[in-house]
Amino acid sequence: YKQSNKLSNKPQFTFFGKTKNVPSKNIPRGIYGWQKKILDKGVLIFFLNSETKINFEKKTVDINLKDKKSRIVITGNESIIKNWTINLNAEEFLKEKNNLIDLQTNLTGCLTFLDTKVENIDIYSKNLFCEDSVNFIRTSGTINKMEIYDSLSDGLDMDFSNLNVNKLKVFNSQNDCVDFSYGTYLIKEIEVKNCGDKALSVGEKSIVKINELNASYSNFG
Fold it and tell me: Which of 64, 116, 127, 177 suits a disulfide with 76, CB 3.0-4.6 Å?
């Protein structure tokens, strides 16, 4: 399975899809059965059950998540996605559905960056319904601005990554607003508000430096 469906040259600690009860080995499983397009050289975007519009001239991706199984994965085997703006939105009613983790792929993020490098990207999301609205896994580089509003669970989760963020704003997450795990992170400016659990969570051997943090109206700072 790893040899025929490989996203990265790194060991495949992150596994998407089922292997049991598949009638043919040639049927794409997990994210490999989704729609996909090339964003930058070597960078792929996989999307499921979403209305995804890509403007290559303006370097924008506009995504409307259509149902509770909608998911987006951007991966590049350490290729660079540079100067892109990604906008995500979901209908308000989806936040009422309890489907935080997709059982077909084990994805916790509505938008997941996996094994890639980012440079000067912007991300805006609203009304997302996954365990993490945005999740970075084994990703490095720089994020210019990220704004995440009205998440059903966690707003932002960064795992096993090395990232610098200029401006980060996370409002109205019903669980944690921001989680850092197993990585190195430099954040110049964070503003978090109305977090149902922790405004900021740092754990699992993470090294985090924050120049300015403004947290308000959260269960834990």
Answer: 116
